[in-house]
Amino acid sequence: MNDYYGELGVAQDASPEEIKRAYRKLARKLHPDVNPSEEASEQFKRVAQAYDVVGDAEKRRAYDMGNDPYAMAGGGAGYGQGFSFSDIMDAFFGGGAAAAGPRSRMQRGQDALIGVEIDLSTAVFGGAEEITFDTAVTCSVCHGDGARPGTGKHTCEICHGSGQVQEMQRSFLGQVMTTRPCHACRGYGEVIDDPCFNCSGEGRIRDRRTITVKVPAGVDSGTRIQLTGEGEVGPGGGPSGDLYVEVRVRKHATFQRRGDDLHCSVELPMTAAALGTSLPLETFDGPRDVEIPQGTQPGDVITLRGLGVTHLRTQSRGDLMVHANVRVPTRLDPQQEDLLRQLAKERGEERPEPRFGRVEKGLFGKLRDAFQAK
Questions:
Q1: What CATH superfamily is the domain 4-72?
Q2: At how many degrees (to 10) do helices 16-30 and 38-54 cross?
Q3: What is the model's pLDDT at position 31?
Q4: What is the structure's pLDDT at 84?
Q5: Cα–Cα distance between 274 and 170 in angstroms, integer?
Q6: Distance CA 19, CA 337 (A)
Q7: Which interval of the chain is the signal sequence (predicted)?
Q8: Domain map of the chain by residue range?
Q9: Which of 41, 50, 76, 68 is nearest to 165 (CA)?
Q10: What angle do CA 325, 328, 332 make, to 5 degrees?
Q11: What gap in Å lies between CA 329 and CA 296, rounded to an integer?
Q12: Distance CA 211, CA 216 (A)
């Protein structure tokens, strides 16, 4: 049985990464383009054959159990036991033929998802946010080619550019021909002579990017903005995936958002609620006067039309709702108490008639109960 570990110069318990590094080192030294001698050419074939066996997890297990896929064919296609049921099905029903041909090094990059936190004012009117994130970008040295500048690629000597190799295997059904990706070129059909030192031949590296995201008016926490082609660059200089930016709106000190309406509360003295007044309010559209009508009751709502959040994908806006919270004094001096008693006497309210009834819930309490009842 061939000593494949010895051909590669690694121990039998070597990791897949150690085996791959050993093969690459020997291939660069023995490749016919680098070393044209017949001895080096023969040794290169043995090294490629060794990597084809121990570089594949399934074949390696079979080899470690004493099954050499090349032993019975004198170094050609062999009859190893390292087969799978899918290999047999592909051989009989043509599954392997459908995947014929080398695969491209150029692949689409993955999509990415990052979060951005915005102020409520940005959600109202829209705006631009600058975000910084780590992602895969095109290698600046080889520009996605994967090869060190000044070098190139050559057709794989093992699969002759097809990206696949055929093997004869023995099974309980007899001898079957299977097709597998070539381990020498990993199915690409070509080998990089000298991989780029910056990206190790992948054509991309990890780096930090900063971009400006246009945030449309009306977004809310959980809204995702899709930026086409701003995701990770694909291997081999492949096209970039998409970037999804998930929005989270910061809490505001004064306003609370409910749908596209904004809500706030104002605390009024009992006298101001009874007599009416005008109060200044700093809104997202600048200062506005809130007119408190005479006889305002606790829980009354004063609506400022069109000062809420812009509806997503439209130009119309919600409203700004000001909830009145009437403050009743808890401490009175003798003069104030006397004035109130005089007022109560004038209004005939010294001994008011009791008017008990059900506790009526506010609008939002009724809506909450309606949803809970479903």
A1: DnaJ domain (1.10.287.110)
A2: 160
A3: 72
A4: 41
A5: 98
A6: 95
A7: none
A8: 4-72, 256-351
A9: 76
A10: 155
A11: 16
A12: 16
CA 21 to CA 14: how far, in whole Å?
11
Q: Say if CB 279 and CB 266 are below 8 A apart.
A: yes
Closest CA to 202 of 150, 237, 156, 231: 237
| Stretches in the chain below the pLDDT threshold 50 | 72-99, 367, 370-371, 373-374
What gap in Å lies between CA 106 and CA 111, rounded to an integer? 16
Which amino acid makes up residue 52? D
For residue 277, what are its two tokens? Answer: 């007044």
Q: Report the residue count for the chain.
A: 374
> Helices in 16-67 by DSSP H: which ranges?
16-30, 38-54, 57-64
Q: Which two tokens stand for residue 113?
A: 């998802």
Does domain 256-351 correspond to CATH entry 3.90.1230.10?
Answer: no
Residue 264 counted as an annotated binding residue: no
Question: Which residues on neighbouring strands pair with residue 206, listed in sequence order?
Answer: 136
pLDDT tens track for 183-233: 888 889 999 989 999 998 999 999 999 999 999 999 999 999 999 999 999
Distance CA 310, CA 219 (A): 9
State the Cα–Cα distance between residues 129 and 214, nearest whole angstrom: 7
| pTM metric for this prediction | 0.62
Burial of 240 (C-beta count, 10 Å sphere; 0-12/13-18/19+): buried
Token pair 């930090």 is at which residue? 208
